[in-house]
Write a structure and sequence with these properties.
The protein has helices spanning 39-45, 153-157, 162-172, 188-199, 212-222, 235-242, 263-271, 280-288, 310-316, 327-339, 358-366; strands at residues 2-6, 12-16, 28-36, 62-69, 81-84, 87-88, 116-117, 134-137, 145-146, 180-184, 204-209, 225-228, 248-253, 289-297, 319-322, 351-354, 375-378. It has 382 residues and is α/β, with parallel strands linked by helices.
Amino acid sequence: MQAMVYRGPYRIRVEEKDVPAIEHPNDAIVRVRLAAICGSDLHLYHGMMPDTRIGHTFGHEFVGVVHEVGSSVQNLRVGDRVMVPFNIFCGSCFFCARGLYANCHNVNPNATAVGAIYGYSHTTGGYDGGQAEYVRVPFADVGPSVIPDWLGDEDAVLLTDAGPTGYFGAQLGGIVEGDVVVVFGAGPVGLFAARSAWLMGAGRVIVVDHLQYRLDLARSFAFAETLNFVEVDDVVLELKRLTDWLGADVAIDAVGAEADGNLLQHITAAKLKLQGGSPIALNWAIDGVRKGGTVSVLGAYGPTPSLVKFGDALNKGLTIRGNQCPVKRQWPRLLDHVKNGYLRPSDIVTHRFPLEHIAEAYHTFSAKLDGIVKPLVTVSGA
């Protein structure tokens, strides 16, 4: 089969790999119809995440058709059109029983914190991802769901990570009616977080970024006020000015490891790998939220310590919440919102690339060329 293969930082290509096989009776093999490239894939592409191995296939956002099922699979049939959450989880361990699917205890022998993720570094289990013609799906009776007939592939693929993660970030914020919510990052997750904040009763939503075309989409898709941080001397001071000098009630970090805005932080994190990520957006969130407020962290960071202003968070009495999104837990609400017309996830899709041109797709997305916000990857023959 054709698959995207990692060959080192900034080096990927399409190669022939063996079609994955059933390894356990509860496995399924899914023939991929559509995948997406996520901002966290760029952390791998840039060499930010430890233990990203040569030969690995990325891609944790994908939908497809069931090609083969193991002998114990009961909930799926060959030919079913399915969406697969980016989390791999067993559904029965201590954490899964509590809905913490992203922290499953049985799927990732390489870590004690995070569970397993398709197509990410070996710190998340080392499972090949869906930027390929076929992908092995473990625990097939637990993770995937059959896509409703009324839901198109482009909307469904955005419900495998970006949409639920943004929605989850707004949930973690504990938004109550009338809250002022500031979202750092106008990428796909930030856009969904901003849009979701309204669904939870926010009174104002402010999105912070430095790319004007993404801020334009934040206004049209998420109906948010916007702040371009390169146009102000002090982001935190400007946020205080916009919020009666108190700060926002809720701040959401939807940026993570490669945040711009502070040259020293960016160099020590992205270039020298001395931090698990540049925490500039997280520090802005800590400083820009009011005393007693809540900071929700969605941005991906590596396990290496980062220069986070935890003393400020302590002294302000902040609540800080974060996790990888337990995707399947969000699907019932999100599917209702999509079906009722409150949300159309595919509205943020800007580019579509065939699998054979995936190197161009990564370069375009990484360099933020051509107004790119969310690229999809089409698989020929699907």
